[in-house]
Backbone:
């Protein structure tokens, strides 16, 4: 069930970042808005890349793909 | 059942993607990636069980599947290449998706080469020179 919480978390961050962006823009702090959006995006990126690396590790172990990273394909 | 659970997760993910995509395109794409990863991790357990069964069959009935591990590797590469290229196609990056598929094919060819050579050698033995 933790997957659904992850989805909600990422979606929540996305919506919050978008709201912060619009609020800051209305307050007139345009550059701060861009910084906030960037930081929010980086947080989500870190979460996604963490899961991607976990997936690729699992794939590598399941499909016996150990040879790829030693540069020796045969 | 477990399958229904994963289908529900995917539907919820799809709704969230549509919601976030209006406000923030890039995070919407990251949500697509996360949903894909969740489904693939779920599928991977099942595939691992399948491979265990196949290996047991091979060892118990001493069926001499020569290149079983090569077959597993090729399936793995096809698996990841498909995941990545569909992801890129979803983000309207057709050109890069095609490149990814090309890379996948080349790696599969590299892995299948020994089998190809073995087949050629057996063929050559039949030809009386």
Residues:
């Amino acid at each position: 069930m933790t997957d659904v919480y992850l989805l909600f978390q990422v979606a929540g961050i996305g919506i919050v970042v978008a709201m912060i962006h619009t609020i800051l823009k209305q307050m007139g702090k345009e550059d701060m808005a861009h910084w906030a959006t960037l930081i929010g995006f980086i947080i989500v990126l870190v979460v996604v890349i963490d899961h991607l690396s976990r997936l690729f590790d699992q794939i590598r172990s399941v499909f016996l793909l150990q040879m790829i990273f030693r540069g020796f394909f045969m | 059942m477990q399958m229904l659970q994963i289908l529900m997760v995917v539907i919820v993910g799809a709704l969230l993607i549509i919601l976030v995509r209006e406000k923030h395109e890039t995070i919407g794409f990251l949500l697509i990636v996360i949903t894909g990863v969740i489904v693939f991790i779920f599928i991977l357990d099942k595939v691992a069980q399948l491979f265990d069964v196949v290996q047991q069959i091979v060892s118990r009935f001493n069926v001499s599947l020569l290149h079983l591990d090569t077959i597993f590797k090729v399936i793995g590469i096809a698996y990841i290449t498909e995941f990545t290229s569909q992801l890129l196609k979803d983000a309207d990056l057709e050109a890069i998706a095609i490149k990814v598929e090309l890379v996948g094919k080349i790696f599969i060819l590299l892995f299948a080469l020994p089998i190809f050579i073995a087949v050629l050698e057996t063929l050559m033995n039949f030809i009386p020179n």
Summary: DSSP finds four helices and no strands in chain B.
